[in-house]
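Section 5: illustrative case.
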């Protein structure tokens, strides 16, 4: 009887492991979570992910996901992090007994205040099942981003051209990576 129970548990474990392998989407689980595109879990460089629950208005879900994707992208480019750690330690003696006490607190916040020039939705996905979620992959557009360098008055023409060339090279690589994602 014990061996039968072990076989059943082992069989279920193997089936669960096999169900989790393969495919470019995470499939719906028994808990009702809808499929998630791989690119939403590991976005390519210079891209941000936005996710919004679909509540009857596809337009609203799309706009919210795109806005959240831009926020995610902006946080990669420039984030001001403020943090503080307070550490208090004391040791001493009271009534002929040693004592020590310590207290550590940590506070942190992240702020984003940047202008994004040249972003576009590269991939989008509306999950199946319930609840539905709209996923948007927001990336910097090479031409628009490189064109932003032309508008920078603080840079010399030589620096501007060097930055533009590097940006174009990086975005060519980004396009290759996105193509790989689409073809999976």
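Designed sequence:
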């Amino acid at each position: 009887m014990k061996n039968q129970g072990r076989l059943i548990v082992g069989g279920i474990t193997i089936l669960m492991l096999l169900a989790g392998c393969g495919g470019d989407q995470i499939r719906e689980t028994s808990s009702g979570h809808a499929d998630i595109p791989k690119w939403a879990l590991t976005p390519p460089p210079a891209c941000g992910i936005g996710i919004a629950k679909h509540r009857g208005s596809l337009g609203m879900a799309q706009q919210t996901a795109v806005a959240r994707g831009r926020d995610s992208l902006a946080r990669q480019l420039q984030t001001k992090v403020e943090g503080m750690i307070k550490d208090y330690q004391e040791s001493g003696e009271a009534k002929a007994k040693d004592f020590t006490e310590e207290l550590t607190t940590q506070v942190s916040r992240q702020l984003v205040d940047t202008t994004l020039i040249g972003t576009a939705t590269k991939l989008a996905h509306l999950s199946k099942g319930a609840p539905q979620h709209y996923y948007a992959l927001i990336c910097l557009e090479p031409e628009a981003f490189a064109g932003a360098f032309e508008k920078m008055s603080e840079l010399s023409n030589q620096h501007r051209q060097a930055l533009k060339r590097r940006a174009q090279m990086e975005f060519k690589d980004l396009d290759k990576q996105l193509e790989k994602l689409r073809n999976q």
